Amino acid sequence: NAGVTQTPKFQVLKTGQSMTLQCAQDMNHNSMYWYRQDPGMGLRLIYYSASEGTTDKGEVPNGYNVSRLNKREFSLRLESAAPSQTSVYFCASSEGPGQGADGKLFFGSGTQLSVL
Amino acid sequence: AQSVAQPEDQVNVAEGNPLTVKCTYSVSGNPYLFWYVQYPNRGLQFLLKYITGDNLVKGSYGFEAEFNKSQTSFHLKKPSALVSDSALYFCAVRDPGYSSASKIIFGSGTRLSIRP
After folding, report:
1. Which of A48, B59, B99, B102 has its Cβ near the most Cβ atoms within 10 Å?
2. What do you get for the CA distance between the two ends of chain A, in Å?
3. Parallel, antiparallel, or unpaired for β B110-115 and B10-14?
């Protein structure tokens, strides 16, 4: 059982380049999320999808777009990468609408992104 | 507005000794509280949660946490630390008054280091 799978694991971009981070879950979860993790700042929510066909902004959405392709897949796109987007990105999923009945999240292993 | 604080960036404990990782929170209603652990180069893993009921919650790997409403705290504890417990620990809080998936907040994390 793979759980939440993210690709790629590492990526280096030049300022202004674009890229898409892919995420897929095999737990039949309704809700999916993208977080970024920066030193000393914990995890901050970028975008989330409470259910297939819906997406909403989180705490730090600027510079990002998302697509909920189907129930399994939720991608994050950087249209024009900036050095401030250097971070570790995590995809997560949960049961039910919103963050599930209690908010228990299942995380992928992360993507380490550097923007030069 | 809800918030969560982890006052210690790092906690150092000798193997076999008890450990405590501190967490305090602020929400308008009764909180849902969580602890997650992150091992190097991995995503976050769920450890335990408090929703309601007994103030002492038991979780994975021998960890437990005590909910203290008067002190608005949810400290993570383990009676006897193992070297393998060394990792980054995150406290998280959700205000159940919000149905939106975005209303879960993570602390900044505490690095736990267990010396042999």
Report:
1. A48
2. 36
3. parallel
